[in-house]
Amino acid sequence: MNAASSSSNAPEGAPRATEPGTRRLAARPAYCAPPQPVAQALPRHAPAIGGVVPFSTVDWPGQLAAVVFISGCPWRCHYCHNTELQTRAARYDWRDARAFLESRAGLLDAVVFSGGEPLSEPRLPSLIRDVRRMGYRVGLHTAGIYPLRLADVMRHLDWIGLDIKADAQGYDDITGRRDSQRPAMACLTQLLSAGKDFECRITWHPDWLDEARLLALADTLAHRGVRRFAVQAARASPGTPPARALSAQALARMKPLFDDFVYR
């Protein structure tokens, strides 16, 4: 990594003079470039960092965040855009990612752990503590696969995005795993009980869940106490137009159910 450099006539390590009327900035680490994939295999116990996005305005609504992607997920959702993150592999060195995040502290609001499934990483609690010590708020994207692991890190999280895959009838068809709705609903119960700031969201296509079933699911979530719900139109790839659009009637019926409803 290359740290930013500057020229000065002052001896190395000597304090620099501050001109009158200027505010002295708190000492901060030199800027580090975003981490790059490692050239050599990392130790087996290394965190499975699959990627780092230096900044994002969409992964935590209202926050400017860096995103750390964890490789590894036991589900095989057929619409997944991050299939390269389904298999556990450490492609980036956490030490490089941590140095970059330290250099951006005070310029970014938050760090979001995404995936893959970030709760699949045994060292996630340690990673979260690292970024909290830098002063960041911490967000998590999860499909709700590991309720006990969510409970373990809940107190250290400021926001959670919980993926809802389908209604009870369609969950296993989406995830490719049996009984997959049960842990997700257990995680939802935890979030509601903890009073955490969170969003439920679903990737929607009428071939997987027709509008009538989507409306029934939205009504169920609202009655359980979900206040923020997002419907994400399925796309062939990120940035492409939606495969199908929700009807105006469906949008009009869902919006009043939640304090914050988004169709994106």
* Biggest sheet architecture: 8 strands, mixed
Mean pLDDT: 90
Q: Biggest sheet: strands side by side, in what order?
A: 1-2-3-4-5-6-7-8
The run of helices and strands is EEHEHEHEHHEHEHE
Per DSSP, what share of the residues sits in E-state strands of 2 or more residues? 15-25%
Total helix count? 7
Class from helix and strand fractions:
alpha/beta
What oligomeric state do these chains adopt? single chain
Separation of termini? 36 Å
Number of strands: 8
Helix amount, in percent?
25-40%
Q: What is the radius of gyration computed over CA atoms, rounded to a whole number of angstroms?
A: 21 Å
Coarse shape: globular
Unreliable stretches: 1-26
Protein architecture, described:
The chain has helices spanning 94-104, 124-133, 147-153, 171-175, 181-194, 211-224, 248-254, and strands spanning 49-56, 65-70, 110-115, 137-142, 159-163, 198-204, 228-233, 260-263. Mean pLDDT is 90; it is low at 1-26. Strand 1 and strand 2 (65-70) form a beta hairpin. Helix content is 26%, strand content 18%. 33% of the residues are buried. Keywords: 4Fe-4S, Iron, Iron-sulfur, Lyase, Metal-binding, S-adenosyl-L-methionine. GO terms for molecular function: lyase activity. Its EC number is 4.3.99.3. Its cofactor is [4Fe-4S] cluster.
